[in-house]
Every structure is written in C-alpha cells, then in structure tokens.
C-alpha cells in the first residue's frame, strides 16, 4: 500500500506542477505585453518619479559637433569672374555639453525649460587646430553689399569708401577659432554702432558665437503624464505657438519635439518631426529601415529628398521661398536678411547645377546623409548623425567695388555634423532593462507553457499505461479456474466463496479464483 500511495502523491504533484506551469505561461502570454507597455509608459514620461527623468534632464550620451570648412583656393580668380574652387578642411571636433535648466511644470501637462549648451574643442579627435587659417568670403561685407543692391548709387559709393577705409575685402583669411566663436573687426564695430538694425551684433562676429555658453530658447513641451501620445511634443517655443519667419502658415508651424526624444511605441508608419531653432523651422524625417545597434533593435529615420526642395519641386515648401535651385533653403528671413542658405553637405540631394558651379564638391549618401536610429519601444535615440551645410550667396554688386566681377554662386562656407551614440553604462543599463529582461520574460512564458503541457502529457500517459497494466485478465488459477472480474469473466454469485488465492506474476497484488 505504501508504494501505491507514493505513486499517487507523485502523480498528483506532477499534475499540479504541470497545471501551474501551463497556467502561468498562458497568463504571461496574455498579460506580459500590456505590463511591459505600462512600465515603459510610466518610465518615459517627463516626471521626477520616472526612471528616464535624469536622462532627459542631462543627456548622458556624449554629443560631438564636427565642423568642416570650405577653404577657397582661388579667391583672386573668383573676383575676376572665375569659378570658385574649394578644399574641405577638418574635421574640427567639439564636445557638446547639454543641460536643461529653469525646469517648470505646469497644470496643463506641460513643462518648460531652457537647454544650456557649451562646446569644448577636442584636439585628439580633430584634424587641425583652431589656429588654422581659412580663406572664406567676408560674410559681413558680402551680406551688407547684397542688402545695398537696390539702394541709390550715392549710398553704394559711401559703402565702398567705408569698406576701403576699413581695409575690407571680399574674401578674408581668419582662423577657425575666429570664424567659429567670433572676432573683433572695424567693420563689426561700424555696423554695431551705425547700423544696429541691419545686424544686431555687439563686439564680435562669429558663426557659432551665440550657440556657445547659451541656450536655444524657452521650450514648453508635453510631459505625457496625462496623454502619452503627446509626450515630448512642443507646445510653444519662446512663448509662441508658431513662428513668423516664413510666408505660409504651414511653414511657420512648430511641429514635433525639441529633437532629443520622441513618443514611444513607434511603427514603420511613424515619422520623426522636430523643431530646430537654428534652422528656424520644423523638419520631418521618414522611416527607412529596421536595424540593430549594440544588440538593441532600432528604426532608422532619414531626411526625404524634399526636405530642402524648392516650391516648384515640392509645393508645400513654397512658403520658404524666395528660392533658388532646389535642394537649398533660403534662411535670410531669420538671419537678419543675410543671403544664407541651408542644405545637406556638398549639396547632397540638391540640383546638380549647384555642384557644377563650385569645384571641389563630392556629395555622397554615406558621408553626407542625415539619419537617426531610434529605439521604437521608448522613442529614445541610440545613434544620430545630423549634418547640415551653411552657404552664402555671393555676386558682384554694381557700385560696390569690393565685389569685383564675382559671378552669382551659392558658395559653401562650412558643414557640420552633430552626432551622439549611447555607450558605456547608460547603454548597458538600457540594454538590460529594456531589451534583455523583456526578451528573457518573452522566452520564459513559452518555456513555462511548454513545460506545463509536457508534464501534463506525461501524467496522462502514465495513467493510461497504469490502467492498462492493472486491467483484469483471464489467468488460470491452480485448479484451472478462470480469474479476473472483467466483462469477459463469468458472473459469480455473491455467496460463492473464494476457493483460493494466488499472486499474479510480477505483481504483489493477490487474486481469488473460483471453482467452475
């Protein structure tokens, strides 16, 4: 009896274990996806209680800005009407430090902040130093000349004499540091003193002067606490719901995020939109392909060919005009009227005429395309490379001698790439919590279901075999009587006494046999 009792307990334990494993696996299959979704939603929102808040406040990813200058090789020939030839110099690499300050939460599910930014030169990553000299168009002289194009000849004469007195020429030879972070010049002082409405500059002039040790304005974005679908989307910039730089409501709209994080749970149908204060406009990137970055699944988004297309090629961009060739955007309306243009580096994806007019340009997708790799579940960038080029439209202005015989041309000044890659401890933590652990749980749920089903199947098989083995059989007893109590046995009267006992071979169980 003890053996049979133990067997029954073993069978019961096997059945209970199998049932629990199968039930737990089934419950996990149903519940786990929504549980993970809830946890992601809870921890990506902008709230001091969320796990990603500190990452949002001070991005742990190291950002670098690589600047490439277009050194003009033949400035004298350009003044005589020749085709410009440029030589790319760089990269000059700067580490970019970002920190959100003046953080204020509001009752309408938004938060306001200013992102303070500083740059630090990285000699070990650069090809050259900030003391390198570069020949570039004299941006202030050419911009001021362009603004005087339709003014009376007397004013142009005064301008020419002023330029001559100050020793200004159409091209300048400045160091990288001066072009980037500012230089003092008699022309700068003249403009700031007598023409402050033309260029509101004080003391120095530099292309990135206002970006260093400063911020890009007051952003107000949605926190996602009340409505996750709007998380990180910009509500206002500098208190404005839209800008007024352009000539259509669509172009003036502030769409998307501030360009650092996006709403979670993306699909291939999603697009990335962000507002760029430097470009004075919103930009939209489109899905290209799936990928993997350091074991983390990503979606790659890149710029469509229509991003800087002119209005004749892409009608929605008509509001950014007046336009020249397609592939470059006129940003003079947000740069104090200076004839500056924004594009992809080396006029990539632009009208080939632009490349043909300047020697030394070699556009290609691998080096000059813009992309971001986003983790689709959280909307957090894993790897990004934003590349833009700044160009100056130059030409001879009749009545201003310094402009010589320059043929109209959009001349590249520089292009820069801002890149950031998650690495080190942040990458390890991100991978463990948001990739490895969910993957383990994903496989565990199916292992539990399979294990439980296998245990239950084993239990059923054992029970069937046990019943088959213990089923009554016709066995001849010692006196030739039939044994068993199955349907094949004859009916035995209740009063009939057992004539004797025997043991079935191989079993401890005893059977009675009855006389015929």
UniProtKB/TrEMBL annotation:
<dbReference type="GO" id="GO:0030169">
    <property type="term" value="F:low-density lipoprotein particle binding"/>
</dbReference>
<keyword id="KW-1003">Cell membrane</keyword>
<keyword id="KW-0812">Transmembrane</keyword>
<keyword id="KW-1015">Disulfide bond</keyword>
<dbReference type="GO" id="GO:0034381">
    <property type="term" value="P:plasma lipoprotein particle clearance"/>
</dbReference>
<dbReference type="GO" id="GO:0043654">
    <property type="term" value="P:recognition of apoptotic cell"/>
</dbReference>
<dbReference type="GO" id="GO:0008289">
    <property type="term" value="F:lipid binding"/>
</dbReference>
<keyword id="KW-0675">Receptor</keyword>
<feature type="transmembrane region" description="Helical">
    <location>
        <begin position="443"/>
        <end position="464"/>
    </location>
</feature>
<dbReference type="GO" id="GO:0070508">
    <property type="term" value="P:cholesterol import"/>
</dbReference>
<dbReference type="InterPro" id="IPR005428">
    <property type="entry name" value="CD36/SCARB1/SNMP1"/>
</dbReference>
<dbReference type="InterPro" id="IPR002159">
    <property type="entry name" value="CD36_fam"/>
</dbReference>
<keyword id="KW-0325">Glycoprotein</keyword>
<keyword id="KW-0472">Membrane</keyword>
<feature type="disulfide bond">
    <location>
        <begin position="251"/>
        <end position="384"/>
    </location>
</feature>
<comment type="similarity">
    <text>Belongs to the CD36 family.</text>
</comment>
<dbReference type="GO" id="GO:0005044">
    <property type="term" value="F:scavenger receptor activity"/>
</dbReference>
<protein>
    <recommendedName>
        <fullName>Scavenger receptor class B member 1</fullName>
    </recommendedName>
</protein>
<dbReference type="GO" id="GO:0005737">
    <property type="term" value="C:cytoplasm"/>
</dbReference>
<dbReference type="Pfam" id="PF01130">
    <property type="entry name" value="CD36"/>
</dbReference>
<dbReference type="GO" id="GO:0033344">
    <property type="term" value="P:cholesterol efflux"/>
</dbReference>
<dbReference type="GO" id="GO:0005901">
    <property type="term" value="C:caveola"/>
</dbReference>
<keyword id="KW-1133">Transmembrane helix</keyword>
């Amino acid at each position: 009896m003890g053996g049979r009792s133990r067997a029954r307990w073993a069978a019961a334990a096997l059945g209970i274990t199998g049932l629990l494993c199968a039930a737990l696996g089934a419950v996990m299959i149903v519940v786990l996806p929504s549980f993970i979704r809830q946890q992601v939603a809870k921890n990506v929102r902008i709230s001091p209680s969320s796990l990603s808040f500190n990452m949002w406040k001070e991005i742990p990813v190291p950002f670098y800005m690589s600047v490439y200058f277009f050194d003009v090789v033949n400035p004298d020939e350009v003044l005589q009407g020749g085709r410009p030839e440029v030589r790319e110099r760089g990269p000059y690499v700067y580490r970019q430090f970002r920190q959100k300050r003046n953080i204020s939460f509001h009752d309408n599910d938004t938060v306001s902040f200013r992102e303070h930014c500083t740059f630090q030169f990285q000699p070990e990553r650069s090809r050259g130093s900030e003391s390198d000299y570069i020949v570039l168009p004299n941006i202030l002289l050419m911009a001021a000349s362009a603004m005087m194009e339709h003014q009376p000849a007397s004013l142009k004469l005064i301008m020419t004499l002023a330029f001559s007195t100050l020793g200004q020429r159409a091209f300048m030879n400045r160091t990288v540091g001066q072009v980037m972070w500012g230089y003092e010049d008699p022309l700068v002082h003249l403009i700031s003193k007598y023409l402050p409405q033309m260029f509101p500059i004080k003391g120095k002039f530099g292309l990135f002067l206002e970006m260093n040790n400063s911020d890009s304005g007051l952003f107000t974005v949605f926190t996602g606490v009340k409505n996750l679908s709007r998380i990180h989307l910009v509500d206002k910039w500098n208190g404005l719901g839209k800008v007024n730089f352009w000539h259509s409501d669509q172009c003036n709209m502030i769409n998307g995020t501030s360009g650092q994080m996006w709403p979670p749970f993306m699909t291939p149908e999603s697009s990335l939109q962000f507002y760029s204060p430097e470009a004075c406009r919103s930009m939209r990137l489109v899905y290209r392909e799936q990928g993997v970055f350091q074991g983390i699944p990503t979606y790659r988004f890149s710029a469509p060919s229509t991003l800087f297309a002119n209005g004749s090629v892409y009608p929605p961009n008509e509001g950014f005009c007046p336009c020249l060739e397609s592939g470059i955007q006129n940003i003079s309306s947000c740069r104090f009227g200076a004839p500056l243009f924004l594009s992809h580096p080396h006029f990539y994806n632009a009208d080939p005429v632009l490349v043909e007019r300047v020697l030394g340009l070699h556009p290609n997708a691998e080096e000059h395309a813009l992309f971001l790799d986003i983790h689709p579940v959280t909307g957090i960038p894993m790897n990004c490379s934003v590349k833009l080029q700044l160009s100056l439209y130059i030409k001879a202005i009749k009545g201003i001698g310094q402009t010589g015989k320059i043929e109209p041309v959009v001349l590249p000044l520089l292009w820069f790439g801002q890149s950031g890659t998650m690495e080190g401890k942040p990458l390890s933590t991100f991978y463990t919590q948001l990739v490895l652990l969910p993957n383990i749980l994903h496989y565990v749920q199916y292992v539990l279901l399979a294990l439980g089903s296998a245990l239950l199947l084993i239990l059923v098989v054992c029970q069937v075999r046990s019943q088959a083995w213990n089923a009554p059989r016709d066995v001849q007893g010692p006196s030739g009587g039939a044994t068993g109590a199955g349907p094949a046995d004859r009916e035995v009267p209740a009063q009939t006494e057992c004539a004797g006992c025997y043991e079935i071979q191989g079993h401890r169980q005893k059977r009675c046999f009855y006389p015929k």
